[in-house]
C-alpha cells in the first residue's frame, strides 16, 4: 500500500466500523519537546490519522492557540529536521501521520530530501495551508514519486468548479474547512455545514474530513453523518496545554 | 537554496519587464512572486485580480483617481533642487518630495487608489496593516474620503515608537488594533491582517501597503506608485533638460522604490540604487537588509528574498525605522537584483540618523527615518561618483519619528 493509501484506508476503516474517523492535530514538541513521541503514541491509541504540526514563525492561518503552541515549540528548538528524526527513531506508531506545515520550512528543507526522509519517518502526507493548487506542482511531483499525499483544502468560499479541481488533485483525504476564518474558532458551526459537506462528499471518492472549530462530542457525532473524518486541532492543543491526557479527551469526543 | 540565471535569461527578463509582460499570468516576476495564500482567500484574490485588470485600464476610474490625486493628495509633489546638499556632497541633488503629499508620505498614492477600488468592489470594511503608521494614516484618511470603515493592525512595538501616527489614525476614524503576537512589528501586523481577512474574504477589502504579498498586490501597488517616478522624470527634464545619473530610494517592502525606479528601468544610463536598513550592523537579526543577505523563501503570500534561518523560520529584524523593519521584500525587487538592473546597498541606523540631521540643517526638511536611509545611501554614492545628478526619493516626512529622535538626542 502506498503511504497516501494508508491514510484513506485508515479513514475508510473507521467508517466501515460504524464510526467517524478521528484526526487529531498536535503541534510537534508542544508543550514539552521531551514528550513528543510519547504524546504521539498516546494519541495513536485513539486516532485514525494523526496530524503533526510543524511549528512556523508566521502561522497566518492559525488562531491564538496554535500561534502560542508554535511559538513555544520553536523556543524549544523544534524543527522539521528534528521532528522527522524523532519519528524515524520511534518504534512504529502504527497510525498514519500527516505533517501540517507552512510552505517555507518545506521549501528550505528541499522537496526531494524531504519526501525521502518522510518515508523513513512513517509520514504519509502533507497539509500545507499556504500552498494553493496552482503553486503546488513541484511539491506534488516530489511527493508523488514516493506515494505521499498532498492533501488539498476546500472551504465554504470555494466555487464549485474549483472544488472539483481540488478534489481531483487531493490524495489521502480532502480537508473540508467548515468556517471562513482561522483555526481555533469557538463559535457554533454554521448551519450550512451539513449541506456543504454533502456537496463535497458527492464529488470525491477518497474520504472527506471536516475541520476548524470542532471541540465537542455532539459535533463529532453530527459531523459523522456528513463526513468520513473529523479533525480536532486547537481543542486538543488546549488539553495538552492544561496537562490533560490527550487520549482521554479524544475518547470523550468519540463517546457520543 | 539560490536562484541562478544566465546573462541571456537576465536580459530576456528585463525585456519582458520593460514590455509590460511581468508579472506574468501566474503573478510571477521571473522566478519570484506568485500567490501562496490560504485556500479561503483564493476566490477573493481572483476577484481582486479581475477588478485590478478592469479598473486600472478603465478611463473613468483613472480619471477619478487622477482628480483625487491632484485635488486631495496634492499631486504632483514638488521636485526640489537641494542646493546645500549639492554643495556639501559635490553633486547635483534633487529631492522628490513625497513628504509633501497629503498625510506626509508616498503611502497615500496606494491607499487612495486601493480605497477607490474597495468602493467599486462594494467592500463593507477595509483592513490594513501598518509599520511606521504612514500606511495606516494614509488608509484611514483615504477610507474616510471614500466612506468605508477601516481597521488598522499595528504591532505593539510600533505603536510605541510611532505614537503620533496612532493618534492621527484614530482622529481619522480608523479602529487601531494592537498586535501582541509574533515579533509585534510590521510582520506580525501583516500576519494578523491576513487572519482577519480570512474570516471575511467577501465583505472585507485588504488594503496592503507595500509591493509585497500574493499576486496581484505587488503589481497593483507598483502601478499606483509609479506616479512618483513618472512625475520626477518629467520634472527633472523640465528643470535640467535631462535624466538623472542615478535614482535612489529606501527599501523595506519596496513600494516607494519600485514607484520611483519603474519609469527609469528602460533608461540604461540611469543607475538605480535601493537602500535597505543596515540596522546595528551585519549579522542575522541585527538589520533588515533582505536583498543584501537574504535567500529565497515564502512569506506573506509571495516567493521572494527573505531573512530566515536554516529551518525556514523567519527571523526577527531590526531597524531604527519601523517602516523598513521587515524580513521580506517585494518580488519585483528580488528580480531586479538578480538581473542586476538595480544595485542594493544598506545604511545603518547611525548613518540614517546622521543623514536625517544633515538634511534638516541643510535643506530645512525633516525626512522620515525611512527616507533618511535613501539620503545616507546617496551621500555614499556621491562620494564615489563626484559631480553627478542624483535623484532621491524622499518618501515621507519625519514628524512621526519625533519619539525616536527625542530618545536618540
CATH superfamily of chain A: Aldolase class I
Quickly give the CATH architecture of chain A.
Alpha-Beta Barrel
| Beginning-to-end CA distance, first to last residue of chain B | 43 Å
Largest β-sheet summary of chain A: 9 strands, parallel
Q: Tell me the β content of chain B.
A: 15-25%
Q: Quick check: average pLDDT of chain B?
A: 96
Name a few traits of the molecule.
heterodimer; A: 256 residues; alpha/beta; TIM Barrel; nine-stranded parallel sheet; 9 strands; globular; B: 409 residues; Rossmann fold; 2 domains; six-stranded mixed sheet; four-stranded parallel sheet; 17 helices; 17% strand
Task: Kindly describe this structure.
The complex is a heterodimer of chains A (256) and B (409). By secondary structure, chain A is α/β, with parallel strands linked by helices. Chain A has a single domain (3-254), classed as Aldolase class I (TIM Barrel, Alpha-Beta Barrel), CATH 3.20.20. Chain A contains 12 helices and 9 strands. Chain A has helices at 3-16, 36-44, 64-75, 80-89, 103-109, 111-121, 137-144, 160-169, 193-201, 217-223, 234-241, 246-254; strands at 21-27, 50-53, 97-100, 123-127, 149-151, 153-154, 174-177, 208-211, 229-232. A 9-stranded parallel β-sheet of chain A has the order 5-4-3-2-1-9-8-7-6. The longest helix of chain A has 14 residues, at 3-16. The two termini of chain A are 32 Å apart. The mean pLDDT of chain A is 96. Chain B is α/β, with parallel strands linked by helices. Chain B has 2 domains: 30-67 and 107-222, 3-Layer(aba) Sandwich (Rossmann fold), CATH 3.40.50; 75-105 and 226-408, Rossmann fold, CATH 3.40.50. Chain B has 17 helices and 14 strands. Chain B has a 6-stranded mixed β-sheet, sandwiched between helices. Chain B has a 4-stranded parallel β-sheet with strand order 7-6-5-8, sandwiched between helices. In chain B, strand 1 and strand 2 (32-33) form a beta hairpin. The model of chain B has no long low-confidence stretch (mean pLDDT 96). Chain A binds chain B through residues 56-64, 67, 71, 74, 79-81, 102-110, 129-132, 134-135, 152-155, 157-159, 162, 166, 177, 180-182, and chain B through 1, 26, 34-40, 42-44, 181-182, 187, 190-191, 194-195, 198-202, 297-301, 306, 308, 310-315.
Amino acid at each position: 500500500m502506498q503511504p497516501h493509501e494508508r491514510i484513506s484506508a485508515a479513514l475508510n476503516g473507521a467508517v466501515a466500523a460504524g464510526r467517524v474517523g478521528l484526526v487529531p492535530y498536535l503541534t510537534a514538541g508542544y508543550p514539552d519537546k521531551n514528550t513528543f513521541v510519547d504524546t504521539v503514541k498516546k494519541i495513536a491509541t485513539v486516532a485514525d490519522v494523526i496530524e503533526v504540526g510543524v511549528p512556523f514563525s508566521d502561522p497566518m492561518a492559525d488562531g491564538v492557540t496554535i500561534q502560542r503552541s508554535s511559538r513555544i515549540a520553536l523556543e524549544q528548538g523544534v524543527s522539521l529536521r528534528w521532528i522527522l528524526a524523532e519519528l524515524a527513531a520511534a518504534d512504529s506508531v502504527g497510525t498514519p501521520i500527516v505533517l501540517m506545515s507552512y510552505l517555507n520550512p518545506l521549501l528550505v528543507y528541499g522537496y526531494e530530501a524531504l519526501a525521502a526522509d518522510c518515508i523513513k519517518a512513517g509520514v504519509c502526507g502533507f497539509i500545507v495551508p499556504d500552498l494553493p493548487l496552482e503553486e503546488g506542482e513541484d511539491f506534488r511531483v516530489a511527493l508523488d514519486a514516493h506515494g505521499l499525499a498532498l492533501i488539498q483544502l476546500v472551504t465554504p468560499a470555494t466555487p464549485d468548479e474549483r472544488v472539483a479541481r481540488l478534489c481531483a488533485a487531493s490524495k489521502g483525504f480532502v480537508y473540508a474547512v467548515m468556517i471562513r476564518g482561522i483555526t481555533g474558532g469557538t463559535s457554533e458551526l454554521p448551519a450550512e455545514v451539513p449541506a456543504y459537506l454533502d456537496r463535497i462528499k458527492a464529488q470525491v471518492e477518497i474520504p472527506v474530513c471536516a475541520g476548524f472549530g470542532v471541540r465537542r462530542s455532539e459535533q463529532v457525532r453530527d459531523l459523522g453523518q456528513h463526513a468520513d473524518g473529523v479533525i480536532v486541532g486547537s481543542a486538543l492543543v488546549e488539553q495538552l496545554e492544561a496537562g490533560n491526557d490527550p487520549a482521554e479527551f479524544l475518547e470523550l469526543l468519540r463517546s457520543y | 537554496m539560490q536562484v541562478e540565471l544566465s546573462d541571456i535569461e537576465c536580459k530576456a527578463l528585463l525585456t519582458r519587464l520593460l514590455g509590460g509582460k511581468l508579472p506574468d499570468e501566474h503573478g510571477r516576476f521571473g522566478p519570484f512572486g506568485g500567490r501562496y495564500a490560504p485556500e479561503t482567500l483564493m476566490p477573493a484574490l481572483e476577484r481582486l485580480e479581475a477588478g485590478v485588470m478592469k479598473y486600472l485600464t478603465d478611463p473613468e476610474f483613472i480619471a477619478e483617481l487622477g482628480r483625487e490625486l491632484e485635488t486631495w493628495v496634492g499631486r504632483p509633489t514638488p521636485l526640489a533642487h537641494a542646493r546645500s546638499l549639492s554643495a556639501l556632497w559635490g553633486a547635483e541633488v534633487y529631492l522628490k518630495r513625497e513628504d509633501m503629499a497629503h498625510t506626509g508620505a508616498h503611502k497615500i498614492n496606494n491607499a487612495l487608489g486601493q480605497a477607490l477600488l474597495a468602493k467599486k468592489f462594494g467592500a463593507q470594511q477595509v483592513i490594513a496593516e501598518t509599520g511606521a503608521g504612514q500606511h495606516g494614516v494614509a488608509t484611514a484618511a483615504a477610507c474616510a474620503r471614500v466612506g468605508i470603515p477601516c481597521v488598522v493592525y499595528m504591532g505593539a512595538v510600533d505603536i510605541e515608537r510611532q505614537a503620533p501616527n496612532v493618534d492621527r489614525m484614530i482622529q481619522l476614524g480608523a479602529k487601531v488594533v494592537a498586535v501582541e503576537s509574533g515579533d509585534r512589528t510590521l510582520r506580525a501586523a501583516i500576519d494578523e491582517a491576513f487572519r482577519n481577512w480570512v474570516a471575511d474574504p467577501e465583505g472585507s477589502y485588504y488594503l496592503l501597503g507595500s509591493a509585497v504579498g500574493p499576486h496581484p498586490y505587488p503589481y497593483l501597488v507598483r502601478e499606483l506608485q509609479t506616479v512618483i517616478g513618472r512625475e520626477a522624470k518629467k520634472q527633472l527634464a523640465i528643470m535640467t533638460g535631462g535624466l538623472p545619473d542615478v535614482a535612489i530610494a529606501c527599501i523595506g517592502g519596496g513600494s516607494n522604490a519600485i514607484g520611483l525606479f519603474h519609469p527609469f528601468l528602460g533608461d540604461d544610463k540611469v543607475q538605480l540604487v535601493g537602500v535597505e536598513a543596515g540596522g546595528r550592523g551585519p549579522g542575522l537579526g541585527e538589520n533588515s537588509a533582505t536583498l543584501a543577505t537574504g535567500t529565497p523563501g515564502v512569506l506573506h503570500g509571495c516567493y521572494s528574498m527573505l531573512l530566515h534561518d536554516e529551518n525556514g523560520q523567519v527571523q526577527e529584524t531590526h531597524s531604527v525605522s519601523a517602516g523598513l523593519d521587515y524580513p521580506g521584500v517585494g518580488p519585483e525587487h528580488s528580480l531586479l537584483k538578480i538581473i542586476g538592473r538595480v544595485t542594493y546597498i544598506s545604511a545603518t541606523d547611525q548613518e540614517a540618523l546622521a543623514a536625517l540631521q544633515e538634511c534638516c540643517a541643510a535643506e530645512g526638511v525633516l525626512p522620515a527615518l525611512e527616507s533618511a536611509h535613501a539620503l545616507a545611501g546617496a551621500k555614499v554614492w556621491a562620494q564615489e561618483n563626484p559631480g553627478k545628478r542624483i535623484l532621491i526619493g524622499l518618501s515621507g516626512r519625519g514628524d512621526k519619528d519625533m519619539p525616536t529622535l527625542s530618545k536618540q538626542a
